């Protein structure tokens, strides 16, 4: 590299970094990439929160479903919870993954706020969360009837988001939703 070109090296490095950072700022944090998209839901054997019965990947397959990672220590989960209850009442199949939480606190939470989940997988050590690539709670994975992860949403699911984006994804998986106010 000639002496004159060395003068421009810091400028070129700065421009390259600026382009890299600008691209990163354009990413939607709720659409974090996941290595699990189009891959099978990870294998697991974990207890159900209420019954203690061991649940496995195979025991939760057979219909399109949402797998919602939640915890009582998660403030955003409390915001999201009433809408998950609404979705469950409309027939959306939802499994809970109670992530690094206290079982008694989780049971009390569900008894108080309602339980939208078909079953609640206790992930006390966070191993299933690690296999899923969980960054934190809430996160929701859309899984087809064969157990393949098709979509991942990071953050709160609310009515607007469901209506404008997520309902269509659930429908593509073959999931059905009763009209608001109707229960299956």
TrEMBL record:
SUPFAM superfamilies: Thioredoxin-like
Example GO biological process: cytochrome complex assembly
CDD domains: TlpA_like_DsbE
InterPro entries: Periplasmic_diS_OxRdtase_DsbE, Redoxin, Thioredoxin-like_sf, Thioredoxin_domain, Thioredoxin_ResA/DsbE_sf
Gene Ontology molecular function: any one: disulfide oxidoreductase activity
Disulfide bond found in the keyword field: yes
Recorded superkingdom: Bacteria
Membrane disposition: Single-pass membrane protein
Localization (cell): Cell inner membrane
Domain Thioredoxin: 35-171
Gene3D superfamilies: Glutaredoxin
Pfam families, alphabetized: Redoxin
PROSITE patterns (UniProt xref): THIOREDOXIN_2
Keywords per UniProt: Cytochrome c-type biogenesis, Disulfide bond, Redox-active center
One cellular component (GO) term of this entry: outer membrane-bounded periplasmic space
Stated family: Belongs to the thioredoxin family. DsbE subfamily.
Protein name according to UniProt: Thiol:disulfide interchange protein
């Amino acid at each position: 590299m000639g002496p004159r070109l060395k003068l421009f090296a810091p400028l070129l490095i700065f421009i390259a970094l600026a382009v890299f950072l600008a691209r990163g700022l354009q990413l939607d944090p709720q659409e974090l990439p996941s290595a699990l998209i189009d891959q099978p839901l990870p294998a697991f054997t974990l207890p159900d929160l209420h019954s203690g019965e061991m649940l496995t990947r195979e025991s939760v397959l057979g219909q399109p479903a949402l797998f919602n990672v939640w915890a009582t220590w998660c403030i955003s989960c409390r915001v999201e919870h009433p809408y998950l209850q609404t979705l469950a009442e409309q027939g959306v199949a939802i499994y809970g993954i109670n992530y690094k939480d206290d079982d008694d606190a989780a049971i009390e939470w569900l008894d108080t706020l309602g339980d939208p989940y078909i079953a609640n997988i206790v992930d006390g050590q966070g191993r299933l969360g690690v296999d899923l690539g969980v960054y934190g709670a809430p996160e929701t994975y859309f899984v087809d009837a064969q157990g393949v992860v098709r979509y991942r949403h990071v953050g709160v699911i609310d009515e607007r988001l469901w209506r404008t984006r997520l309902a269509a994804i659930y429908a593509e998986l073959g999931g059905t939703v009763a009209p608001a106010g109707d229960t299956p």
